[in-house]
Predict the structure.
Amino acid sequence: MMKKKAVSAILAAGMVCTAAGGGTALGAAAVTDDHMIDTTIVRHNLAGAPTVVVRLEEESQLSGLAGTAPASLIVRMDAEGNVVDSDGGSLGALTDLYADYIAGVMIPIVEIGGDAEAEKFIEIWEEELSIADMAVMSADAQALQKVRTQITGIRGIYDCTDVPLADESALYEQVRLSTLSMANVVLLTEEQSTVENVAYFQGRFKTVWTQLDGESEGDLFSIQNVVSSGTYGIVCTDFKSVYQAYRQYPERSVARISRNIAHRGLPMTAAENSVAGAQLAVEGGATHLEIDVHLTADDQVVVMHDGTIDRTTNGSGSIASMTLEQLQQYQIVRTYSGAEVDPEPIPTAEDMFRTFDGTGVVIVCEIKTSDTDVLQALRPVIEKYDFWDQLVFISFDLNMLAAAHEQLPQVPTAALAGFKSRDFDANVVKYNAMNTVVDATIGDMIETDYYDSMLKDRGYMSFFWTYGTAQDCVAAMAHGVYGLTNNAAATFGERVGALWGQEGQAIARDALDYDAPVQVVVQTYAGETNVFSGKVFNWRDCGTYAEVIARYTEAEDVLYTRAFRVDYASSDADDTGKGGCGSAINGVSCAAAGGAVLSACLGVCAFRKKGRKQ
């Protein structure tokens, strides 16, 4: 892994965000609304389907928002408080457009440029349009941070579409800047939204939304290819085609592969919260390690779930009352269930950071102590190993989350409680003020619509705890749950952790059809790689070859590859579609089509599927 040893100082002076910095939660305004909008729920077979967001580019779009609406609408605001189209022409005042088209129907997202627009938005929000259920978006991290620290109760979206994401150092810099600017959603282009980039951001509590390229609007194949990246949101101008693309998926389809988060290592078979147990979990396929930390009497950070060492070690006593030297006289000798195991040292946070530095494994650090001094005790250890890019915090304690936001504002955080539907309206404003996201108990999963729309439509991913078995994880993944904190990471590690198309294969042109066999590469979480037979889900003719999205069924769950090249057999590689990929779709020429004809060709002709209406 490439590590960034000297992080950019772009925001070092100006972007230290606090939860108690005098910001406004809700103001006294002409329009005041602290309720959450009931967004449209569209039924289909794709579990975890990305939320649908429309970007307003021209006035004619507004009339098409009636009926089945997208979850959110992005409007671009200028320094005078007017909504503008893609050419900069005014569409009217933000307050008027909100009242006429958005209120009670969609979640408003106001896109701002720089400082002038930030100042105007703050003025409008405080004096005219004080609503809780909205977000502000900007590519200017300082402008975004200015709004979010002044209006703490709304959400932030950081636009990364113009930023080169050449390596992991560049990826982490955007995680850092988005966190400092109090944004937990990042906007990427289609090109930026590779499976790897999306997993990098989302594995660090940064929800990815993907902006469709202009040529992808209305193209179901392109939309489905974006879905295969694992993104949590699709930003478009033609939202109806996105819903149409979702309806193409067969039953048991899953939008993304989950993260395998090892709860206290392998607590059922190894010493709980030990380095050895954590190493076994990672070897078995864990993408993340969840650990618990406490502070000793001499201000050292140790890894232990309980506040005492009685349950899992051969000693007894309170961690807070013992020095590190005293603690290290004892060893971990039991699993979570109480079974005896070979003794293992009680680790420090530094032991964990040193062991997994540079591995790409993300440490999900649950802060168990209520002593906020633990944050300053962690700082030098994080800095010693430059572990910023491999660390997120979680906690039940709102005071601890607020302190983390103030003292270590570049570290993403998640709250472990308070996101039940009955509490959402009241609690979400508090959590936005701390810039924290959701890591909820599995007991709340019974509220499926709530977690699949209310949270997802607002940029919150589905991280849940704690699954006991690999079978529990499989069932949760089938429902689209992304972050699976579990006690069986090595067993679950035998499942599909990555999927892509096998390069170099060929197929006869007339054999290319829905359900046609095609080879896919399956990699387990543990890293074992094999080639299996999948089936064609969708394809696009490119003349001498096709771009194919394949599906692969594991147990009953249907997973999908990104588009990959499949050559036609040599006798079929004729002159059809010489214009390049997209000039012909399943043999139907679109070269001379324009405007609505091209849209119809892409949207209808491209996707010939067995048993489906043409």
